[in-house]
Amino acid sequence: MKDSADTQPAPGARPAGRPPRVLVVDDEADLRELLELTLVGMGLDVDCAGSLAEADALLERQAYALCLTDMRLPDGDGLALVAGMNRRFPQTPVAVITAYGSAENAVAALKAGAFDYLAKPVALDALRSLVRSAIQLPAQQPAARGTEAPAPGDPAWQLLGESAAMREVRAQIQRLARSMAPVSITGESGSGKELAARLIHQSGPRAGQPFVAVNCGAIPEALMEAEFFGHRKGAFTGADHDRDGFFQAASGGTLFLDEVADLPLAMQVKLLRAIQEKRVRKVGATVEEAVDVRIISATHQDLAQCVASGRFRQDLFYRLNVIELKLPALRERLEDIPSLAEAILARLAARAGMARAPKLASVTVRYLQSYHFPGNVRELENMLERALAFSNGEVVNVEDLGLKPTVSDADENERAEPVGEPESHAAPAAAERRPVRVSEDGIPESLPDYLDQIERDTIQRALEKTRYNRTAAARLLGITFRALRYRMQRLGLS
Predict the structure, then answer these.
(1) How far apart are CA 293 and CA 255, in angstroms?
(2) d(Cα 115, Cα 97) in Å, to the nearest integer?
(3) How far apart are CA 98 and CA 77, in angstroms?
(4) What is the DSSP code string of 121-189?
(5) Does residue 246 register a pLDDT over 90?
(6) What is the pTM of this model?
(7) DSSP summary character for residue 337
(8) Taking the CA atoms of the chain, what radius of gyration do you get in angstroms?
């Protein structure tokens, strides 16, 4: 006879063949009963606890698909339960119940790792919507997803890379996908903020629901309220029919607010209320309607600085910036350029109907890695699209890029400028060249200058070996005569 312990489900696992079980933790008997009746009516099993101690005792014996907890309990607060559940049962979402209008408690709970929150008095339709979203979560998230390469067609193709920064970004995205907490994505233009938002959406329980992306800076201020919340027929001149807004279009899914710092102050007030109350009123309507959206925002500006200057409301900042996801600039992860470039070229070649994508010459990779990329991945894509048109279809050489690598300067930050024809650039005088200083651990003071030095020496040796026959030297180096001439002029060897 097997020990009874052998038949117990693992903590956090859902017992096979049974409906999902929900744990309700609240010291108000009436509210516990209301929640229990509603959840049972949804076909769920329910256990109730009136304190943290009772909840801990139940958690020792039973696995749960969802936990609902009040923020205030006789022997502690709900934040302690949220933290404990995230530590012990990370696959079990926890939602908190807060007092009406207590936005601070809701934000604190979301920051602590809560899946979502409900405000008292609990609206049953909001409760059912939350439960449906939570129960749809997969029982297990792939542990290694944060390090796996995205599948073809996955919006994460632009989030490729094995750098430590990108591994951490992908791991964060997987954690954020499990929560309904508002996420603020920051990063420079072209760093992939919308792609990260789409990946958060597609990796979570709302994957099958709408994802609505809105560029807040592209909407005329006079139309903003109607665009966000919708309008009734006759609400204003030209409103000849009822129309839903962005919130209604995204209901059940995710609303992505790009360049949120561009919102005017008047609209910020209205947006704050919609996010806090989860209800909106159409222009011209007399009643509000419930909406269920997850908010993800993004901006390339410093929102904290915008708050300090009075251009952005502090209360809205705290509401949107519950969890921050920072995307690194491409220059901060140069080791990812080869895999990124390969993926981009493959996609561009397929779109152009090419049988196979061209490869990057090794020296081309080094040149790309010496460039500052002020436009980040978007600029890399544009650069490679141009290079694809000028390449021979098999290899992308440096001259196909139209790129001048960055040069370190002791007094300035690195910067990069595109170049035209090589002849338009004066070659540096031989007297100006000096060996690149290398530290004791073998790291050069300037990587671009160091690479130039290696390339200069290699070309010089090839020329000496071929008795300064440039055609033969180019063939020996595996590049075209035009590429050799370009490099010689740039390096001052002509």
Answers:
(1) 6
(2) 11
(3) 11
(4) SPPHHHHHHHHHHHHTS-S---TTGGGSPPPTT-GGGGG---SHHHHHHHHHHHHHHT--S-EEEE--T
(5) yes
(6) 0.62
(7) H
(8) 29
In this structure, which topology does domain 172-328 adopt according to CATH?
Rossmann fold (3.40.50)
List Cβ neighbours of 132 (8 Å cut-off, separation of 6 or more): none
Separation in Å, CA 278 to CA 70, 174, 271, 454: 19, 25, 10, 61
The pLDDT of residue 297 is above 80: yes
Q: Where in the chain is the domain with CATH 1.10.8.60?
A: 332-491
Q: What are the start and end residues of each CATH 3.40.50.2300 domain in the chain?
A: 4-135
Residue 430 to residue 460: CA distance in whole angstroms: 13
Q: Mapping DSSP to helix (H, G, I), strand (E, B) and coil, where does residue 36 land?
A: helix
The rounded distance, in Å, linking the Cα atoms of 146 and 128 is 31
Residue given tokens 């490099």 in the structure block = 487
Give me the half-sphere count of Cα atoms (radius 13 Å) on the Cβ side of residue 74: 11
CATH of domain 4-135: 3.40.50.2300
SS3 for 395? strand
For the chain, what percentages of helix, strand and coil (3-state, to nearest 5) are there? 45, 15, 40
CATH architecture of 332-491: Orthogonal Bundle (1.10)
pLDDT tens for residues 2-32?
A: 443 444 444 444 445 578 899 999 999 888 9
